[in-house]
Amino acid sequence: MSPTTPVGPTGPTGPAGTTSLTQPADLAPGNPPAGGGGPLARLTAAVGSGIARVTDNALGPYQSAIVRIGFAGTWLLFLLREFPHRRELYGPDGPWSWDLAQELIANNGAFTTLMWSDGMVWFEIVYAVAVLSSLMLLLGWRTRTASVLFMVGVLSLQNRSVFMGDGGDNVIHLMAIYLVFLRCGQVWSLDARRERRTRERPAREGLGAAAGPERPDAAHADRVGPLLWCALGFVLLVATFGGLVPGGFAGGWLTIFWGLWVVHGAWWAVHRIESDVRPRVLLDIVANLAHNAALVVIMAEACLIYATAGWYKIQGSRWQDGTAVYYPLHLDYFSPWPALSDLMTSSGTMVMLVTYGTVIAQVAFPFTLFNRRVKNVLLAVMMTEHAAIALVLGLPFFSLAMIAADAVFLPTSFLKRLGGWAARARDGVVRRVPLGRGRGGSEGSGQGAPPPEKETAEQAHVGFTA
Amino acid sequence: MDAYDEVSNARRGPDEPEGPVSPGPGDTAADENDSADADTDTPAPASPPVAETDTSIPAPASSSSADDPAGVPVAGADTGRAPVPARSPAWASRQGPYTPPPPHSPSPPNASPPPHARPLSDGTLAPAQSPPPAASGIASLPLPYQIVVALALAVVAVVACVHVGMVFLHVAPSNTMTKQHGQAVDDWVYPEFEQNWKLFAPNPLQQNIAVQVRAEVRKPGGGFRETGWYDLSALDGAAIDGNLMPSHTEQNELRRAWDFYVSTHDTENRATSSRGELSERYLRRIVVMRLDRELDGERADGSGGVVERIQVRSRTTNVPAPEWSEEQVSDKPVVRELSWWSVTDRDRTEASAE
């Protein structure tokens, strides 16, 4: 990638404005710099502004939040739905027994904490942690920690019993890994709310102007973060010295987990340094870089899924003769509503239109990203199709996972409207809850405003966090 | 640990100063921003309107301060906002008041820490209009930090590109590159990034494969009896019927176990891979578990017993051709029968051992 070269200390390091400073000869004063200068200057300016963009911002805050909520929610629902079957699916004495898993994992080296012990208690602990971490991630409580635990939970359960999964599990598996690198708690999260309240507190108390940097206050006030960090560090220490984590330190899981642990600690530490802001800036930039790269990878992954699904279909005779959609609908394993399946496939023309439409949409999807309007239309089509698949083929979790992956492409304006609706719906519920209910009351009183005003406050928040 | 995640987002508004007055200042910058279009969008920090509205392009010639090479822009200051120099990147306004101006930084130093950076209009707007004190931006950092950032940028970019490339080669058909570097691709992708998106492709499955089992049961009173065939897949199908959320135990367990068995055995049921034995044990455990559940009902009336041996078979039936199609497909099932297996204790799950 060419952007790496000009970032050197002598080259233009910032956006266009900075470039114009370092190359004053190219620009007549008063000229819009973007229009002036040679192609080279324009190129460096573009590269510079591109670099500034990916280092300064964690892009797509709403998109990363909806992806986080989507996958955490899907996995949480799945875990709750399978709760009665959890031992059969992943337990030490399920059909895919601990011994069988041991033999397979000895070969493929997949990561799962469930191989640390064949005890039922350990299994129940891991399952509970998986459920809790999904909930944490869904709500955005200690998001970055939650995302690591979420990944551990997903990998532990899925890698324990690989033959229980399907395409939906596969998507969740990949996204659980990518989510670790995403700053996905910027909006729609308890973290964001806590951050906002810490910032607002001095303002409400009339200290705003005098308070100056209140971030260190926030860091000082926080006890849960360091506690969580210490506890997880202890677990990691035990796991390391118990020889439980495979892969060793050289690029293996130990490197990843200890690395994440150190980074989290460093993040906390640099926010306590009040004399020097530069380490904080540095970590912020690195976090943004990782976030933006992960976002690109998630988008690329979604495109690869559709491209693969589409291009391989083109080669199939059933997709060519326009009957393909008929068949899955008549498989015993994928027809929870046989009458509905029959109805949907009663017309050969309809089946052919849906068959061709599916292939066209899947093949075209990656290319439509170049045009915002077409992309949005196709996105709606894809999500609708997945919603239909959820019901008709009896694949609700696969469909939810795919919709969550699609959501990374949703437009910010739509997501903000969605957030507004959600906030209003929540406020509506909160208002209807009798005052005796402590939780709802505290939720409302947190901002010290009567309900109608709170609504606007919430909307302002939605706007602010954009 | 990400209590400050929101920060990066709060300082989104590089065009904030010239934006129209709106309830949520952040809106203006991002409203029309679409992450999918992010790559094609012109980055906001360089948007020309800024240069036109704020007249002081901080070119050295117009520098207002002789000893300050970057110039101290003043245009924005009288508007009651942080003194953001025209066309200066967003981070310039975000530097904390206590940020020492890096000597060789091209960014304009924060000459006047804005005490009014936190307008206390109504509390809700305050955070949006006040850039958090955390500074940002490469240019605000000294050289060693910039080198680290450059390294991080390079590493992140390379890893992301290599990863996408590897995953692409993993899902692509066998080709020149995968033939030459297949091992490298496998090393990267397995075990955690393995994926298969040939969803119903190239052709959807067009047969219903029923896995059935019968058993030799030792009767409670002594002696043996042979059961009839139990259609375990039909039981799965019945459990799925009318189910909004079929369980993986019904939809995937037996179906995929049979796929696993078929893929690791030849048509003579000889294992073709080292995993063949695993798949046999897995299949036995599922089948014995299911069989015991079925026999449980019969045990209640005393006719049950202990499963001693089992035989598994698959019965494959073509999905009938659509009514509107002229195609003819055979409706005769194809049966594949495995040999009898003795059931040992390790084939019994907890559920079946009781």
From TrEMBL, chain A:
InterPro entries annotated for this entry? Answer: HTTM-like, Sporulation_signal_mat
What name goes with this protein?
Answer: HTTM domain-containing protein
The entry's keywords: Membrane, Transmembrane, Transmembrane helix
Ranges of compositional bias, category Low complexity: 1-29
Asked if Cell inner membrane is a keyword of the record, the answer is no
| Signal peptide stretch | none
What PANTHER family has UniProt attached to this entry? Answer: HTTM DOMAIN-CONTAINING PROTEIN, SPORULATION-DELAYING PROTEIN SDPB
Residues annotated as domain HTTM-like? 56-414
Q: Which residues cross the membrane?
A: 62-80, 121-141, 171-190, 224-244, 250-270, 282-309, 350-370, 377-405
Where does it localize?
Endomembrane system
Topology of the protein relative to the lipid bilayer: Multi-pass membrane protein
- The protein's predominant localisation is membrane
From TrEMBL, chain B:
Residue ranges with Acidic residues bias: 29-40
Keyword Membrane tagged:
yes
Regions crossing the membrane: 147-169
Quote the biased-composition stretches of kind Low complexity, using this chain's numbering.
Answer: 58-70
Name the residue ranges with Pro residues bias. 98-117
Provide an example Pfam family for this protein.
DUF5819
Keywords of this entry: Membrane, Transmembrane, Transmembrane helix
Look up the signal peptide feature and give its range: none
Question: What InterPro entries does the record tag this protein with?
Answer: DUF5819
* Stretches the record annotates as Disordered: 1-134
Q: What is this protein called?
A: DUF5819 family protein
Origin species, per record, is Streptomyces heilongjiangensis
Species lineage, top-down? Bacteria, Bacillati, Actinomycetota, Actinomycetes, Kitasatosporales
